[in-house]
Structure formats: structure tokens, C-alpha cells
Write a structure and sequence with these properties.
- The structure holds two protein chains of two kinds.
- Chain A is mostly helical.
- Chain A folds into two domains: about 45 residues, no CATH class; about 200 residues, Orthogonal Bundle (MetI-like fold), CATH 1.10.3720.10.
- In chain A, about 80% of the residues lie in helices and about 0% in strands.
- The longest helix of chain A has about 40 residues.
- The two termini of chain A are about 35 Å apart.
- The longest helix of chain B is centred in the N-terminal third of the chain and has 34 residues.
- Chain B is mainly alpha-helical.
- The radius of gyration of chain B is 23 Å and the shape is globular.
- In chain B, helix 7 packs across helix 10 and helix 11 packs antiparallel against helix 12.
- Chain B has one domain: MetI-like fold (Orthogonal Bundle).
- Classes of the chains: A mainly alpha, B mainly alpha.
- At the A-B interface, helix 1, helix 3, helix 4, helix 5 and helix 6 of A face helix 1, helix 3, helix 4, helix 5 and helix 6 of B.
Chain lengths: ~270, ~280
């Protein structure tokens, strides 16, 4: 089938287009020379350079610290708010949803300059706290958006039943609602983590005093050819790939193996 | 349980402070030019006048729209066949995963990789050298900027179109065949119109970041390649002129709203019943 072959070839070409730059970065981070096109020999010297640069090491630390904190805070606040929204009247919900959509709809740079002016006017010292606050601000909307549908599909009688059976509202929340919506909460947390981990534009505008994340580091260092950037990039690619395999890919694979085993057992 | 409603108020307060107030600040600063500490607000259109009377800025504005449109067109032209091929493939789920994974890796990192590949001594020129082609200058050209944008944004387009193709009712295609349509007719009269909503939502995910991007032109276009995002960056981080910067971002927002309006009206033309979701 020529048609099928053509489709496959196109998919293959597109995947090469997607992955070539990523593979290139990883491979050339181990290159012993500064060359952009010739791989001379294997070496870890760019990693050594990276770990000797306190700026680069700090940027890795800040990126992870902010992503973890922003994920925790925004997941908690987002989930609580979503539960409240599912029980509130149309007007209040409408208002909150409208405001909540703004950071998602706006281009990052618009959100970024708004926050920059806001923090500067309040004369807050720019750095870790402003960056974290900004990340929490743009992560919460995504958490709310991923928890809301789960809450909506929840049987409303469930909560009433829990209360009738003598739960306090708090117990009902923790023992009934949260466990029933946990898949939405987890996917919200995952989205929040990657949003925060990968953010450049907003972080770049609201940070200061030497607090940089990896993206800002790559941006400021990219003015000259510097293979340490490839090493730093490979670290990020590694973290994300490991994260994806542990969280996203492994369960389906495990499921598939389990199913295969079950089917074989039946034979 | 009415008492749960109270759970909304802390976030409502937070959102007003952190989302609404910064947005209002942009609006206020855009319509004044009294410096960065607005104690007593004086209405002025000075920033807008300054922007539209300077040909330098108008050139930048035109270039930004041109680049964003070009990026969007290429994303549709390459993304549609990809989504179509994916929907027909046996490995759908794996392909969706493979298209999604790069979007989880930092955009800066992936854009920087293209710098090394497109360099005069880079991988691609080295490869072309085997065929006796002299090194081509890719970096600091429109080609490099559009390539970088297409590379970064096309997964969103593919995934949107793919979703709309997946939702497509297969019995409609059978009906079309039964009624005598050939493959091409079937595609043009059934598949394509029904996937327009996917294309539209893809466009909203590509055009908006493309028109406001500032690090892709900086990394791949060089310091001379200025788009509207770069002008905004300069106003806030170098020049420190909040009023002018706010006015420009407001102009950009208006362009985005107009372009969304145009794409939506295209959707209504192809799907008059308004089956978009």
C-alpha cells in the first residue's frame, strides 16, 4: 500500500524533526570539543564546568525548589477552591471562573509585565518569593480546571449520605470528596509541576537579585556558544524523561503486561 | 452543603490581587505617560501616538504579524497530514505520547538546540556539505525564526486536529462512499469540514504564542531581529518605560482579539450550525 507507506514516512520525518534537536543536545553535551557538528570523543568536561559554576547549580536548585513548592501550594489551594466552586451559586462561580481563565488566555508576556509592575509598585524584593508567588498564581488555574470536571461527575448524594451518616463537613471532604477526585488532583499537580518547571517568560520578568531558574540561565548564557548549556539542557531533559517514565508511561506499560499475563493465564 | 462555598473566598481574594490588579495596572499605565509612579492619574494617549507615528515600530508590528501568520500556516500545512496519519495509524496512543513529550521539555532548551544545528558550522550545514552545498546562512534569518516557532508550537496544532479527527463519526464516511463519493470528495466534503473546529483551536494555540514570543527571535534571529515581544521586553527590562510597554502589549492584545474573531468567523462559515466545543 503506497498510501500507507507515505503516511508512515511522513510520521517518521515529523518524529525526526521533533527529536533530532533533543538528541543533538544530549549527544553534544558529551563532546570533548567545542565543535557544533563534529563529535570528537566522549568527555564529561562540560558537566564538570557546569557543576563548578555556582550560577548553574543554583539555577537547578531554584527550578526544582520552586516547582515542588508551587505544585504543593497550587494543588492544595486549587483543589479546595474547586470543591467550593462545585457547591456555590452560578454568579460567584461565573466570576471566579472568568478571573481564573485570564492567565490561561493571556499571552505569558502580558501576565509577566502585569506582575512585574505589581511587585515593583509594592517594592517587594524580587527573587525567590516573587518567583514562587507568580508560579503559584499561574499554576492554580490549571489545577482548578483539571479538578472541576471530576467534581462535576461526582454523585451529589454522596456528600449528603456522608453527612447523614454523621460525618462532619471536614471529614466528608477528606474521606469522601478528595478520594473520589484524586485522579483529577494528580493530573492537576502534574500539569502544575511541568508548567512551573518549564516556565521562562514569567520567571524572567519577576525575578531578580541573582535568583535564576534553568530557563533564564539558558537565555542569558546563550549569547555565546557555550556547550555547558548542552550539559544543563541534558540535565533537564533527563529529569523530565525520568519523571515522564515514572509517572506517565510506566503505569500503562504495567497495565499492558498485567493484561497480557491475565489473558495467558486463561489459556 | 452551603458551608463549602466559603472555600472559594480565599482564592477569590488572591485572584483579585494577583490576577485582576496586575491586569488593571497594564490598562492604567497604557493610558498615561507620567512615569512609573502614577500618583495622580492623567489620561493620555501619548504612548499610542508614539507607537503609531514611528515607522520603526510599525515595521516591527507588521513583521510580528507576518511571522505569526506564516508560523500558523506552516503548522496547519504540516500538522494536518501528521494528525491525519496518526488517526489512521495502529500506534495512535504511542504517537500521541511521542508528540506530547517534547512539549514537556523546556522551550528554551529546545530552541537553543536549533542554534547549534543551524549554525554556519552546525550539523545541518555539515550534512549539506556532503552534497557539495556551500554553508548556508540559516541563523539570523526569517527562516530560522519561523522554523523555531513551528518547531515549538506545532505539537499543539497536531493534538487539536488529531482530537477532532478521532471524534469523527466513521459512519459518515461510509455514508459518503455509499452515496458515490470518491476518496478525495469524501475528504473534502466530510473529513475536512468536520475537523475545522480542531484547526481553529489549534490556531488559537499557535498564533497567540507566536505573535508574542520574544526568546525565539532573540535566540534564532539574533539581536537585530526584533518582534513586538522584544520591544515589550526592552521597555520593561531595559528602558523601564512602563507606560509605553503597557500600551504596546495592549496593542498586541487587540491584534490577538481581532485575529481570534477572524478565525472564529471562518469556523461559522464552514460549520453554520456552530458545532464547536
Amino acid at each position: 500500500m503506497a498510501r500507507k507507506l507515505l503516511r508512515r514516512a511522513f510520521i517518521l520525518l515529523m518524529l525526526i524533526f521533533f527529536y533530532l534537536p533533543i538528541i543533538y543536545t544530549v549527544v553534544f553535551s558529551f563532546n570533548s570539543s567545542k565543535s557544533l557538528s563534529k563529535f570528537e570523543s566522549f568527555s564529561l568536561k562540560w558537566y564538570e564546568k557546569m557543576f563548578h559554576s555556582s550560577d548553574m547549580v543554583n539555577s537547578i536548585y531554584y527550578t526544582i525548589a520552586i516547582a515542588v513548592l508551587a505544585t504543593l501550594i497550587s494543588t492544595v489551594i486549587g483543589t479546595i477552591t474547586a470543591i467550593g466552586l462545585s457547591r456555590s451559586g452560578r454568579i460567584l462561580r461565573g466570576i471566579v471562573e472568568q478571573i481564573n481563565d485570564m492567565p490561561i488566555m493571556n499571552p505569558d508576556i502580558v501576565t509577566a509585565i502585569g506582575l512585574l509592575m505589581f511587585f515593583s509598585t509594592l517594592a517587594v524584593k524580587k527573587g525567590f518569593v516573587t518567583m514562587l508567588t507568580a508560579h503559584v498564581m499561574f499554576c492554580i488555574p490549571y489545577v482548578i480546571l483539571s479538578v472541576m470536571p471530576k467534581l462535576r461527575s461526582l454523585d451529589p448524594n454522596l456528600l449528603d449520605a456522608a453527612l447523614d451518616l454523621g460525618c462532619t463537613p471536614m471529614q466528608a471532604l477528606v474521606k469522601v470528596i478528595v478520594p473520589e477526585t484524586v485522579s483529577g488532583i494528580i493530573s492537576g499537580a502534574l500539569i502544575a509541576f511541568t508548567m512551573s518547571f518549564d516556565d521562562f517568560v514569567i520567571s524572567y520578568f519577576v525575578t531578580g537579585n541573582g535568583v535564576n531558574n534553568i530557563s533564564i540561565m539558558v537565555y542569558t548564557m546563550s549569547k555565546r556558544i557555550n556547550p555547558s548549556i548542552n550539559a544543563l539542557s541534558t540535565v533537564i531533559i533527563g529529569i523530565i524523561t525520568v519523571g515522564l517514565t515514572v509517572v506517565n508511561v510506566i503505569p500503562p506499560i504495567v497495565n499492558a503486561i498485567k493484561q497480557k499475563g491475565k489473558i495467558r493465564k486463561e489459556i | 452543603m452551603k458551608s463549602f462555598r466559603k472555600l472559594v473566598y480565599p482564592y477569590l481574594l488572591w485572584a483579585i490581587i494577583m490576577i485582576v490588579i496586575p491586569m488593571l495596572m497594564i490598562l492604567v499605565y497604557a493610558f498615561t505617560d507620567e512615569g512609573n509612579s502614577v500618583r495622580n492619574f492623567v489620561f493620555s494617549l501619548g504612548s499610542f501616538r508614539r507607537f503609531f507615528s514611528d515607522t520603526v515600530f510599525l515595521v516591527v508590528l507588521r513583521r510580528s504579524i507576518y511571522i505569526a501568520v506564516l508560523t500558523t500556516v506552516f503548522c496547519v500545512l504540516l500538522g494536518y497530514p501528521m494528525a491525519y496519519a496518526m488517526a489512521k495509524s495502529r500506534f495512535k496512543i504511542h504517537l500521541v505520547l511521542l508528540v506530547t513529550i517534547p512539549t514537556w521539555i523546556n522551550m528554551l532548551v529546545r530552541t537553543y538546540a536549533w542554534r547549534g544545528m543551524l549554525d554556519n558550522n552546525g550539523l545541518i550545514n555539515n550534512f549539506l556539505g556532503f552534497f557539495g552545498i556551500a554553508p548556508l546562512k540559516f541563523l539570523e534569518t526569517t527562516f530560522a525564526v519561523v522554523l523555531g516557532m513551528v518547531y515549538n508550537f506545532i505539537p499543539f496544532m497536531i493534538l487539536q486536529i488529531y482530537t477532532s479527527l478521532e471524534k469523527l463519526d466513521k459512519s459518515l464516511l461510509e455514508a459518503a462512499s455509499d452515496l458515490g463519493a470518491n476518496r478525495l470528495q469524501r475528504f473534502l466534503k466530510v473529513t475536512l469540514p468536520l475537523s475545522v473546529p480542531g484547526i481553529i483551536s489549534g490556531i488559537t494555540l499557535v498564533f497567540l504564542p507566536a505573535v508574542s514570543s520574544f526568546f525565539i527571535p532573540k535566540l534564532l534571529g539574533g539581536g537585530q531581529y526584533v518582534l513586538i515581544g522584544n520591544v515589550i521586553e526592552n521597555q520593561f527590562l531595559t528602558a523601564g518605560d512602563w507606560s509605553f510597554g503597557s500600551a504596546i502589549s495592549l496593542i498586541m492584545a487587540v491584534i490577538i482579539i481581532i485575529s481570534m474573531y477572524i478565525t472564529r468567523s471562518l469556523d461559522k462559515k464552514t460549520n453554520p450550525e456552530g458545532g464547536d466545543d
